[in-house]
Amino acid sequence: MRSVRARAALGATVVVALALVGAGLAVLLVLRANLTDQAGLQAEVVAREVAGQLALDVPYDRLEMRAEEDHPVQVTDEDGRVVAVSKDLQAISGTGTGQVAPAPSPAAGISTGSDDDGDDDESDDGRHSAPGRGEADSAEPDFGNGTATVDGETADYRFATVRATTSAGVTLTVHAGAPLAAEQEAVGSVRGAMLIGLPVLLLVVAGVTWLVTRRALRPVEGIRREMAVITASEDLSRRVPEPGSGDEIARLARTTNETLTALEASVDRQRRFVADASHELRSPIASLRTQLEVGAAHPELLDVPGAVADTVRLQALAADLLLLARLDAGERPGRTTLDLGALVHEEVSQRTGDRIAAAVSVPESGGFEVTGSRGQLARVIGNLLDNAERHAERAVSISVRVERGGVVVAVTDDGAGVPPDERERIFERFVRLDDARTRDEGGAGLGLAIARDVASRHGGRLTVEGVREGGARFELWLPSAG
User: Fold this and answer.
1) How far apart are CA 403 and CA 298, in angstroms?
2) 118-122, long-range: CB within 8 Å, 24+ apart, which pairs?
3) pLDDT at site 108
4) Structure pTM?
5) Which of 15, 156, 245, 280 has most Cβ atoms within 10 angstroms of its Cβ?
């Protein structure tokens, strides 16, 4: 089942079905228990009425047993023999004995009729005891279910068992029943209603869930279709529709569009990078080819220094492109601890052919340790010095200081400076200001881009600002080691 709507509808239907079945069973059990308790209470009332009469030594054949109210009664003695039953009781079960023919015990001390010999009431034959001397048991009665046949009709009953003691000390047990027909009819009606209503309700739940899920997922289908079009056309300028609901789907569409925007910008950068790299590589390659072709035809005209310069420039550009590719691939810098002041001295000492020598200012106090890649940080310092030497008029300086939990390397030149509105653009790849676009003096526009990228990957930053006396100051901040 691959449809989300179908799975949601099925899941909701199953959950509702389980809940309704559980609730229905609970309702049926509670209803049956309540109605059974009511029947038991009726049976108890009848049983206590009969037990009260027996306690008053009412003769068995004169007991009032509510036969007209369909409450079967059975009275047994201590030996389990039936001594009295209600009218028209033909069969009974669930009371301990199925006998329905009275067989009074002589020990009961209660007569079943009047004395035909006319003896007076003071006769001691035990058939007439003084009323009020017996006792009905006040303990909680025993309950049970059974059947009884009264006047030819058999039905289920709830029986209550109560004991009574006559004045002669004979203990009699009274079994009185109350019909369970009302309980069975009510439970059957509720069960039938549930069996009919449950499927209908489940169909309604499934249908409503299907419709609601379909409506909720309609924007997702729109997003999917638009993404399919974007994938097929490779047109990253398209955007998926954003619903105005403000829910999770709307946030998903918004995030998808943001991802498409970032992807479009990345692809554009890659295209510009490839185009600019091809453009920058074309010039030295064309110049080198021309010189080699001229040298092949006229060896005396071969410009060897020019060919070497073009080769060096081509090699440097290839190295820059390779480093950018590694940085874009997510290459992590090393974790070597190094002294940035010593690294500055080392880089400046190696620049013997610069047009303007850089003045170095590194305090002897030390504390310039940072963590990172020695080669990449040396590349950053070299790029900053190259940039300053290219634009300086008469002076280039480089200093190192500790500042705000980090180490700052500042490179200053006295050139024309960088206009405020261009101070961020110069860190983009292949960007050179108008006065620096001559390839004989300028580079390919990758040095500052590489420097900022390396600084960022070392947890630092690279910024540029103007100098009061004129020129520009580039500051590289890196966090101190530890």
Assistant:
1) 60
2) none
3) 44
4) 0.51
5) 280
